[in-house]
Amino acid sequence: MSHLNGKKAMHWPKTSCRPEDLAVTIVLFLAAIAGGLYILLAPKQTFSENENRVLQGAPEITLEALLKGSFADETESFVNDQFPLRTEFLCLNTLSQKAVGRRDLGGNYAVTPAEGGVYFGAKGHIYEVLLENESGIFQKNAQALLNFSENAGIPLWIMPVPSGSQEQKENLPLLAENHDQREELEYFQENAAGETYIVDTFDVLGSWNGDFYYKTDHHWNSFGAYEGYKQLVSEMGLQPLPKDAFTFRLASTNFLGTLYSKAVDFTQQPDEIYLPQLKTPQNIVQSVGGEEREGLYWEEYLQKKDQYSTFLGGNHSVEVVKNLDQTNGKKILLLKDSYANSLVPFLCTHFSEIHIIDLRYYSQNVYEYIQENDITSAAAVYSIKQLCDVDISNKLFS
Amino acid sequence: MSFNNLTFLCFFLPISLAAYYLVPRKGKNLCLFLFSLVFYAWGVPSHVLLLLTVILVDYLCGLVISRFSESPGKGKAAVAVNVLLNIGILGYFKYTGLLVTTLNAAGLSLPVPEIALPLGISFYTFQSISYAVDVYRKKAPAMINFISFASYISCFANIVSGPIARYELMYPQITGRQETLEKFARGGRRFLTGLFKKMLIANTMAELAQRVQYMDAPSTLAAWLGMLAFTFQIYFDFSGYSDMAIGVGGMFGFELPENFDHPYASRSFAEFWRRWHMTLGRWFRDYVYIPLGGNRVGKLKLIRNTAVVWVLTGIWHGASWNFALWGVYCGILIICEKLFLQKVLDKLPVFFQWLYAFLAAAVGWVFFSYTDLGKAGTLLAALVGIAPNGADSGGYLLVTFGPMLVVAALFSSPLVSDFIKKVREFGAIAKILWTVACGVLLLLSIGAMLSNAYTPFLYANF
User: Fold this and answer.
1) Residues A38 and A180 in one domain
2) Contact (CB<8Å) B450/A86
């Protein structure tokens, strides 16, 4: 380009280089080259907490990878994953979307069924966008659960838990649409027969009673879990412990949950996590994967991103929670998703043993498990969203 | 590879430019050709073989055509062979699936072949045809140097989605272009403009358009929002891509032809098409319409010629019958304008001329964007208020996308670009502010690229 230097604007005023063009071109290449050098030279990130996935490392050049095109895919993932200030850029994106008036983010309507993403709600809440059921997964799951009691020969209490965006509609953006999860509740209620009982938590979790959901996570908070517990054991004919039988210990003030991950935003106020503890302590043991632990809280998770896993240490295919101070000998089977994890600290006060099975990860026969362990009753605690999204019905075929 | 991609931005572009400016003059076309092959092979490496075959065949055809330049019959035959080969390749890769499924729908039960559409094939086969015809018409000499010819067909700036650069225009640039700092800087700015259009406007409009396309029964408001969103999406997507292509070309010293000139400011549908995807319109005019006789024929032939061009334009855009229908729709409107509608329009106030042209384009995009004609019908009915099962989702879409719709509308009009041009000429402070604003928009674009790690261009599938 140096050959231009001698031919200044005097000769060709109309074709001379505009300074602002040059300036933005320099900005473009400075950014591009700085990004490129950083990606090549900086230490590589290996894991993204927000996305809960392993980040792409430097791709290997092999003939096969080149010919199949996988080298190209891996390189693009590598560049995207290792880009400098990646999280800051994602935050910038969220903030700019909010600035231009967007009230939701992270949806994908190019796939069927579509993914709704999240709403930016009032009072610092992020909410799941609930879309109409189109996959038929809910019907399959519901039918399998409704047949369970007859197949197993024991009573089943089904507790379908609504999402925060169902219960706190007044916080949703103006005119926001949301699928009404009462449809699923009513489906259960209309089709429940025999020893299958449906536990309705819609009213007790309503926002007029308090805030029972995390702002940044799709789960109910410990107070919501308490309301669920109260409802469940009452329906089972037991006397729930009053709320003031527990202390709610503030264990974390910096929890940023799964909904936050869909709309990374440094201005978001984090959640608090409370761990309920019975004021007259009981000796609780959780046995999972052949090992026994005292208590139900895996507090090492409070130092990680996934703080909700403090409850029971996350999801396991099968685990048993024993209350050594409870001598009634009652054994219950709990079919569940992660909503139940924060419910178990309350529930365990009533049973000698809670056998917890997460059907998403369990590959054995549930009915045999019931017989082998002399289980006499069962509860199914599921968020309705989960029942609509993930098919667990084939795990319940007898 | 595509332009709105950090791998391109941080690695491919700087490295290819550095190499290009370091090699001596003699090696520049070879350098461009090699980088173009890498660019092309990036996604589906095997398609490079097809590209090389096309280049070789066209190169040989060009030599034959120029050899027979004094015997028109033989030259014509060589052009015909070249055109048939190129159309054959395009037809095989693009339309076999459509042909088979259509035959199956008519009662046959043939196996539907799975043929992946090679990147940019609709564009480079058209450049190939342009080469053969221009050489035959002696608008430019055949390329003797194979590498030079290969760099014309494969140039990564425009191989994926144009602009379709006619050989006549490109010959002098391939053989003796001059890279200048002025072209380079203008290219950088142009590239950024395209990147902003694609990442900051087109993608948001795409989200809205997709939401409405996803609905089985949109309400009237939702139908309007969806149609407008797609109207802006396709403009900012494609004109953004063209800006990036022209910008990249400029950095390598090329002056690629313009592709868009504020089409939504048109006052007739024919004018819209003179300002929309201009290089395609020009191609059809030069290589189809005029050979058929063009305008200088009787009324019936004029209608025939126009109809042929528009049906071809339609199916060129995609291997599905809705594109043919869209072509027919465009053809009918343009024939009507030629016959009588333009005279009616001329009597209307300017606003209504614009409104007609804009809505004609927008309604056309309904046929274009819905491969399912039943769904297109539902949407069209909803537009005029017939939405018996219309879900009431328009209100929220207006809340969450309204501001960006306004932004898109403003930036698609000449008003804003004229204003920005004026601001840039206003003085040093304005220039600094403008540069800073571009820097901020670049950061936002990077944020958008990272947040949807992968967003293929609409037009890349053609």
Assistant:
1) no
2) yes
Domain range for residue A35? 2-87
The DSSP H or E segment spanning A277 is: strand A271-278
- Options B47, B262, B277, B317, the catalytic residue: B317
Looking at the fold, whether B116 and B236 belong to one and the same domain comes out as no
Contact A251, A270 (CB under 8 A): no
Q: Is the pLDDT of residue A6 over 50?
A: no
Cross-sheet strand order for the sheet of A284-288: A196-198, A156-161, A377-383, A331-336, A353-357, A318-323, A284-288, A291-294
Residues A48 and A130 in one domain: no
Query: Looking at B156, B177, B198, which one is the last position of a domain?
Result: B177
Measured between CB atoms, does A55 come within 8 Å of chain B?
Answer: no
User: Is the CB of residue A269 less than 8 Å away from at least one CB of chain B?
Assistant: no
Q: Would you say residue A7 has pLDDT above 70? A: no
Instruction: For residue B323, tell me if it sits in a domain.
Output: yes
A4 in B contact zone (CB under 8 Å): yes
State how far residue B15 is from chain A, nearest Cα, in angstroms.
9
Contacting residues of B for A4, CB less than 8 Å apart? 180-182
Q: Are B318 and B370 in contact, with CB atoms under 8 Å apart?
A: no
Number of domains in chain A: 2
Complex-level ipTM beyond the 0.90 threshold: yes
Residue A112 maps to a domain: no
- Contacts of residue A24 in chain B, CB cutoff 8 Å? 188-189, 192, 434-435, 438-439
**What average pLDDT does chain A have?**
92
Alpha-carbon distance of B180 to B187, in angstroms, equals 10
Pairing of strands A246-255, A196-198: unpaired
Tens digits of residue pLDDT in B80-95? 999 999 999 999 999 9
Domain boundary among A34, A62, A87: A87
Whether residue B1 lies inside any domain: the answer is no
Per-residue pLDDT of A158-207, as tens digits, reads 999 999 999 999 999 999 999 999 999 999 999 999 999 999 999 999 98
Residue A121 falls within a domain, yes or no?
no
As a whole-number percent, the residues of chain B with pLDDT over 70 amount to 97
The beta-strand segments (E) located in A14-155 are 47-48, 53-54, 104-105, 118-120, 126-128
Q: What type of residue is B87?
A: I
The confidence band for B134, taking pLDDT boundaries of 50, 70 and 90, is very high
* Least Cα separation, residue B19 to chain A (angstroms): 14
For residue A108, being part of any structural domain is answered with no
Residue A103 within any structural domain of the chain: no
Q: Are residues A132 and A263 in the same domain?
A: yes
Query: Are residue B218 and residue B139 in the same domain, yes or no?
Result: no
- Regarding whether B216 and B110 lie in a shared domain, the answer is no
CA distance B207 to A69: 28
The range of the structural domain enclosing residue B56 comes to 6-177
B47 as an active site residue: the answer is no
